[in-house]
Write a structure and sequence with these properties.
4% helix; globular; mainly beta
């Protein structure tokens, strides 16, 4: 049963027309802690049982679950983990720990079960998904001949056709691109760090051993990066590799330096739907005709263009800026790709660069670049003037941005979660209480301010004095290819208690604006099995297709709502279709809504009054006016309802 996430405003005017509620976002429960685990009769879900759910374009959810070992069933610590996929009423069990007869195990060459070699938990938590339903699942394995050097693997594929991409020491038998070397890193990859695309590809790294592996000295080559899907794994790069396109000696211009995998590689390497990769990396100190030092050893690599190439190196002149502005040198890398989906299906890479040389630290030393087809474009820079819109006044400047919540989709629309520079000289001073902002920058269109800390919320279901306590660094965001942005935020106001009902998830829609999805303090599910919500969790990780694994390109959002005693419900949510035919509720077009003045102006114009900036009185645009139905529809939409 679907439930409304918005609450009736309770508006009943003297005109005698009562407003009827209709959801702006519809929530559908997918799986509950109180449910009997699908496919596992006689068992129960544990408290805090579900991982962060992900969702595909069809609205199907992948989620990992934990069974209760103390609730009257027979589950034990060796068989309590399970992975599910499906929608409301269609959840199917994909895999279960323990190898119990009759329960599914993901296919693997040895037919081993999902466990460690000591019968511990096997399936990794946090399985992820691509828009077309191809999933990535990881696990430890156990069975005859299993050891800690051959029992870790990950799979990709659709439900019913998941297959091993890589199993340490087993699949492929030797690491592609090497001569006899095998992977020497556990391959039960954490899905929280890796994305999967529609082709079932994942980019991953590993240490190497055996064969042509050299573990030290000038020829060291015992690590690498690969991209692969079942039956098709290819090397992207290997430690010790040289003669990479664009990787030239910083003085002679000759391709001398040698690649040296860095720690940042694990977290920065991402792929898009074309199988192209972005890869922050390091050069081997001492290599090259002009020896590489720790001050100029950071590089940014990509396979855009076909083969591996270097597109930026520490110490180089920064494109698009006056001579003397450089990619900062020093022990820390100047290159920070966006945390999620930094490479989109348009073949663009988005990287935040710390500038050196003439740049002034903490003033104008940050620039967000887009790289596409060999061209670098600055799309944002610290100390730039912020777009004047909403409450942002002329003269306001940007200070920094948040890499985790700043997103770009395949249309190159930028959602920028940033911070304004604190400034006491403006008419409304910028302080730590109002410097967090979220902008949307559609290509070729004016920027839109979505939310700013300290602004009035002006949303149905919230008190008139409710104020955003938005934080640009707060987790739980995502951006899809409809241009919708999901975010979580806190707020204050009359009747709002910190830690009780002051946090919620919202979707900003390009047509309908901000819509409430779910809020702490509200009752979700059966009060007999679920207390009021204390947690609303959204997973904003990328999906390998220029989008978000938890927020599909068809508008489906997966979220987890929980209470303070461990009960949880996984929901899917979607913004309802736009109100058909009706005008918006900002009748007087002053950009403040909902407000009493819109109501006053509506009835004034209805009675024949003048308001040049106002809409006409045919609110429902049926060509009949004046009429009672316009009044009824105006009040209904004002209260969050739909236009007939």
């Amino acid at each position: 049963m679907a439930v409304s996430s918005n609450r009736i405003m309770g508006l009943v005017l003297a005109a005698g027309v009562a407003s009827a509620a209709c959801a702006s976002v519809t929530l559908e429960p997918v799986i509950r802690r109180s449910d009997t685990p699908p496919g596992i009769p006689g068992e129960f879900f544990a408290t805090f049982s579900f991982s962060n759910p992900k969702i595909d374009n069809a609205g199907n959810v992948v989620v990992d679950a934990v069974l209760d070992t103390t609730g009257g069933g027979t589950a034990t610590t060796s068989n309590r983990r399970a992975t599910y996929y499906g929608g409301p009423g269609t959840m199917q069990l994909l895999a279960r720990d323990g190898g119990i007869a009759g329960f599914p195990v993901l296919p693997n060459p040895n037919n081993w079960t999902h466990n460690t070699t000591t019968n511990g938990a096997g399936l990794a938590q946090g399985s992820t998904i691509a828009p077309n339903g191809r999933m990535m699942i990881s696990s430890n394995l156990n069975g005859p001949g299993a050891t800690t050097t051959n029992n870790t693997a990950f799979w990709t594929g659709a439900a019913g056709s998941l297959a091993v991409v890589a199993q340490r020491g087993v699949v492929p038998a030797t690491a592609p691109g090497t001569t006899g070397a095998i992977w020497n890193t556990n391959l039960n990859l954490s899905p929280s760090q890796f994305d999967v695309n529609n082709a079932g590809q994942v980019v991953f790294n590993s240490q190497l051993t055996g064969g042509d592996t050299v573990t030290s000295g000038a020829g060291q080559n015992n690590s690498g990066v690969w991209i692969g899907s079942p039956g098709n794994v290819q090397m992207v790069m290997r430690q010790g590799q040289s003669n990479v396109t664009g990787l030239n000696d910083i003085v002679t211009g000759l391709p001398d330096p040698t690649l040296q995998l860095g720690a940042a590689t694990t977290f920065g390497m991402k792929l898009n739907g074309l199988g192209q990769v972005v890869l922050p990396n390091k050069l081997r100190v001492g290599s090259g005709a002009t020896p590489v030092t720790t001050n100029d050893d950071d590089v940014l690599l990509t396979t855009i263009g076909g083969s591996l190439r270097c597109i930026a190196r520490q110490g180089e002149q920064a494109p698009g800026l006056p001579t003397g502005y450089t990619f900062r040198t020093g022990a820390s890398s100047p290159f920070s790709t966006l945390s999620f989906s930094p490479i989109n299906n348009a073949g663009s890479i988005y990287v935040l660069v710390t500038l050196g040389g003439l740049a002034v630290p903490t003033v104008d030393d940050l620039a967000l670049y887009r790289y596409n087809s060999g061209n670098w474009t600055i799309v944002w820079r610290s100390d730039d003037l912020a777009p004047v819109t909403g409450s942002v006044l002329a003269g306001s400047k940007f200070a920094s941005l948040n890499l985790g919540n700043t997103r770009v989709n395949n249309a190159e629309t930028l959602a920028l979660a940033g911070f304004l520079r604190q400034d006491a000289t403006l008419e409304t001073p910028i302080t730590g209480a109002n410097d967090d902002v979220l902008y949307i920058f559609p290509v070729g269109q004016p920027a839109q301010l979505v939310v700013r800390a300290g602004d009035l919320m002006n949303l149905p279901g919230f008190p008139p004095d409710a104020v955003w306590n938005y934080e640009g660094a707060q987790s739980g965001t995502g951006f899809n290819n409809l241009g919708q942005y999901v975010f979580t935020s806190r707020f204050t106001g009359t009747g709002i208690t910190a830690g009780v009902n002051d946090n919620a998830a919202f979707i900003w829609d390009p047509v309908q604006g901000i819509q409430l999805v779910a809020r702490t303090g509200e009752q979700y599910g059966d009060p007999l099995t679920m207390a009021p919500a204390t947690q609303v969790t959204v997973d904003g990780r990328g999906n390998g297709e220029g989008g978000t694994a938890g927020f599909s390109d068809t508008g489906w959002l997966a979220l987890r709502i929980g209470d303070n005693i461990g009960n949880q419900i996984v929901y899917r949510a979607k913004v309802d279709a736009p109100v058909a035919g009706c005008d918006d509720i900002d009748f007087n077009n002053n950009d403040v809504f909902p407000e009493d003045q819109d109501i006053v102006d509506f009835f004034d114009v209805l009675a024949g009054g003048a308001c040049p900036a106002c809409n006409d009185i045919d609110f429902n645009n049926n060509g009949v006016f004046p009429e009672d139905q316009d009044v009824a529809d105006f009040l209904n939409v004002l209260a969050g309802g739909q236009c007939p």
